[in-house]
Amino acid sequence: MSLTLIAAVAKNSVIGNSKMRKMPWYVPEELKFFKENTMGKVLVMGRKTAEETGKLRARDCIVLSKDPAYKLHGFITMTIEQLLAVNAYDFDKQYAICGGAEIYKELMPYCSMAMISYMDFDAPGDVLMPALDRTVWRRAQSVEMNKFTAVSYVNTDCKTYSKIISKH
Ligand SMILES: NC(=O)c1ccc[n+]([C@@H]2O[C@H](COP(=O)([O-])OP(=O)(O)OC[C@H]3O[C@@H](n4cnc5c(N)ncnc54)[C@H](OP(=O)(O)O)[C@@H]3O)[C@@H](O)[C@H]2O)c1
Which distant-in-sequence residues (6+ apart) come within 8 Å of 117 by Cβ? Predict the structure, then answer.
């Protein structure tokens, strides 16, 4: 089981703009970085992000919605609980948790790694990146790129689905 959170965050913590319904910046090098780091993984997006981006080529895509009847071309619909349950016994697949803010917040405790591109500019927008809990997330690596710094983190207290079950 492996969930990796992947996000791009502006200096002012903005990750999106709900009025524009597209990313508030265009940085080809960061898009290339995203592509390289998600190839071979299953992409997981919240319903709003999935509607915005559509299916991305050459990667299986899951859309998370609370409506089990929801359908989006090229995506498999799941709830978060279904994703975590599948993930609990699927040791081979790697999932890239691709946002947006709601999904990052809910799945962050179950991600073993995070890869965050810190852009070197502020961006206009109203969707903000939820904070990583620094008591459990440890900075692992940092690479300077053009217009952003790619930082990876390891979750030292990664939750699993079986832990959720045992709480109830
Ligand atoms: N900078 C980045 O790296 C990045 C990456 C991705 C997205 N974004 C931006 O983020 C924004 C969208 O983020 P957002 O927070 O508004 O929306 P979102 O996280 O993309 O999607 C929210 C939707 O996810 C579904 N959902 C939430 N909790 C769920 C659960 N427990 N089980 C199943 N489904 C669940 C719900 O869909 P239903 O309403 O259908 O139930 C909810 O409306 C956009 O502006 C986008 O551009 C930025």
Answer: 7, 8, 9, 30, 33, 34, 145, 148, 149, 150, 151
